[in-house]
Amino acid sequence: MDDKKIIFSGVQPSGNLTLGNYLGAIKNWVDIQHDYHCIYAMMDLHTITVRQNPADLRRRTLEVLALYLACGIDPKETILFVQSQNPHHAELGWVLDCYTYMGELQRMTQFKDKSARHAENINAGLFTYPVLMAADILLYQADYVPVGKDQMQHIEICRDIAQRFNAIYGDVFKIPEGMLSKSGAKIMSLQEPTKKMSKSDENPKAYISMMDDMNVIAKKIKSAVTDSEGVIEYRENDETKAGINNLLSIMSAVTGKPINTIVSDYSGQGYGTFKSDVAEAVVEMMRPIRSEYDRIIKDKEYLKNICAEGLEKAYAISGRTMRKVHKKIGFIQK
Ligand code: TYM
Questions:
Q1: Of 5, 174, 199, 313, which is the active-site residue?
Q2: What's the mean per-residue pLDDT of the chain?
Q3: Distance between Cα 223 and ligand 1 center (Å)
Q4: What pLDDT, in 10s, does the model give residues 183-232?
Q5: CA-CA distance, 288 to 90, in Å (whole number)?
Q6: Span from the CA of 329 to the centroid of ligand 1 (angstroms)
Q7: Which residues have CB under 6 Å of ligand 1?
Q8: Which of 11, 81, 126, 197 to mutate to test the pocket of ligand 1 (most atoms within 8 A of CB)?
Q9: What pTM does this model have?
Q10: Residue pLDDT, tens place only, 125-168
Q11: How far is the CA of 147 from the centre of ligand 1 (A)?
């Protein structure tokens, strides 16, 4: 084994992925894939905390894989698999449930948000979701977890659970760290820029889906909510600037230019020109991804083979951790 560090991350196939998922997570995964041993999954176990249509879930799981590939993830170097196909996730999730406190889970903002949005279905899975996520990461002894800012609280609880477990049983789990992308870590809604861009938003104008047509993408950016001041400036804690801050972050994440360079490039210019340029930059970035995606999604056999190969490798790694956990806890070995 070489000394490359291990990366684990994933996306829930619960809706069409957004520009936020891409700039906050997947783009970063592509950029770092040669420097680490990377493992990425389609997190379907997590999706059923909210009711899913079975046919849609099946279809979306392969669509997410096709998108990972279209974005540039190399399946020869990276392990890619479907979470529910590896039973170790649910198994370690249960074990870790017994090392997690109710009070810790009650503090999770995602739980509070989702239970407010799905008041008719506040199930136990929604509550213990962060524990399953901790299991996902700890099974692979990951060093780093590249995610958007919204997931950092879950990484923190994962670290707490792992440290608590290690304090009882010795060094069982590696303590992972979150890894944020430079400018895309929190892409906001185009319509309510104080809220994060989310694939479950009721208003489709609020988010850019990776499945949107190029002209729809351009239109959504051009009609993004801004302010009436007319000055292109990044002011982090000024809510009236949230729309412009967001467009600047998007432009920076897409072009790789620092925000202050972009600000000086557009000094004295109006929002119209700036929005058109952001729209063009996003469209130019998405166009090749979309055409790759359209090609790959047709080949279901290829996609299923990648999942099968990935699963075999993932299962071997997670099995080692699982055996260690069983032994430490006092379960009789098979
Ligand atoms: P999910 O499916 O909501 O989002 C996938 C990734 O996209 C990031 N993201 C964003 N980044 C920037 N701006 C946004 N507006 C934005 N929206 C989403 C998320 O931070 C995430 O990195 N619980 C996770 C999935 C998961 C997971 C894991 C991730 C399950 N187990 C283990 C890492 C490791 C989730 O719901 O992500």
A1: 199
A2: 96
A3: 26
A4: 888 999 999 999 999 988 999 999 999 999 999 999 999 999 999 999 99
A5: 37
A6: 31
A7: 8-12, 20-21, 24-25, 43, 46, 133, 136-137, 145, 147-148, 150-151, 184-187, 196-197
A8: 11
A9: 0.96
A10: 999 999 999 999 999 999 999 999 999 999 999 999 999 999 99
A11: 6
In order of 24, 34, 86, the CA distances from 249 in angstroms are 11, 26, 37
Question: Are 6-180+300-329 and 204-294 in the same CATH fold?
Answer: no
| CATH architecture observed for domain 6-180+300-329 | 3-Layer(aba) Sandwich (3.40)
Domain range annotation of the chain: 6-180+300-329, 204-294
SS (H, E, C) 29-56: HHHHCCCCEEEEEECHHHHCCCCCCHHH
Q: What pLDDT score does 96 carry?
A: 98
Q: What is the CATH number of domain 204-294?
A: 1.10.240.10
In the sheet with 177-179, reading across from the earlier edge strand, the strands are: 79-82, 37-42, 6-11, 144-146, 177-179
304 tagged catalytic: no
